[in-house]
Amino acid sequence: MPLMEWSDQLSVGVGQFDREHRVMVDMINELFDAVQAGRGREALGLVLDHLLDYTKTHMIKEEQILEKHGYPDLAAHRLEHKAVGRQILEIRQRYEAGATGPMCMEVLTLMRKWLIEHIQGTDKQYQSFLNARGLH
Ligand SMILES: [Fe+2]
User: Fold this and answer.
1) What's the number of domains the chain is made of?
2) Cα 51 to ligand 1 centre (Å)
3) Distance between Cα 122 and ligand 1 center (Å)
4) Where in the sequence is the domain holding 67, given as residue range(s)?
5) Which of 1, 14, 38, 53 is 20 to 30 A from 70, comparing alpha carbons?
6) Ligand 1 centre and the CA of 123: distance in Å?
7) CB-CB contact of 107 with 47 (8 Å)
C-alpha cells in the first residue's frame, strides 16, 4: 500500500508543476515500499540520487517561471528551495560516508514535510498569481 496518494489538495493549479510534484509522491512511495520489503538501505542511494537531480531541475524550472512573471515572493521561495537542497545533499554525504541509523525514515519524513509545508503552503501561494498570467 502506498504511503502517500496524490490528491487535489496537493495541486498548485499549474499542470506542469503538478506533474513534477507527482514524481515526488512516487519517490516517497518507492522508498517506502523498499523499506517495507527490507531493502531500504539499498534503495536509498538511488532515491537520493534521483531526489537530488529532481529537486535541482524542478526548482530551477519553478524559479525561472516565477522570475519571468515577476513573482514578488521569489526570494523567500528560493531560500526554501536552497534549504531543502542543502538538507538532501547533507543526507547524501552522510549516506556515502556509510552512516547507519534510520536514514530512510529521515528521508521519508523530509519528503513528506516538503510536500505538506512547501508544496501545499509556499508553492500553493503562486497559484492565483500564475493562473492570472495564463499558466494553468
Ligand atoms: Fe517551490
Assistant:
1) 1
2) 14
3) 7
4) 11-127
5) 53
6) 5
7) yes
> What is the whole-number distance in angstroms between the Cα of residue 78 and the centre of ligand 1?
8
Backbone angles phi, psi at 7, to 5 degrees: -145, 165
CA of 37 to the centre of ligand 1 (A): 31
**Residue 134: inside a domain, yes or no?**
no
Contact 52, 88 (CB under 8 A): yes
pLDDT in tens, 15-69: 999 999 999 999 999 999 999 999 998 899 999 999 999 999 999 999 999 999 9
Could you tell me the distance, in angstroms and rounded to a whole number, from the CA of residue 68 to the centre of ligand 1? 15
3-state DSSP assignment of residue 86? helix
Question: How far apart are the CA of 74 and the centre of ligand 1, in A?
Answer: 9
Instruction: Output the domain CATH number for residue 32.
Output: 1.20.120.50
Q: Whole-model pTM? A: 0.91
Residue 126 Cα to ligand 1 middle (Å):
9
Q: Quick check: is 71 in a domain?
A: yes
Classify residue 5: in a domain, yes or no. Answer: no
Contact 67, 119 (CB under 8 A): no
Residues 6+ positions from 85 with CB-CB distance below 8 Å: 52, 55, 56, 59
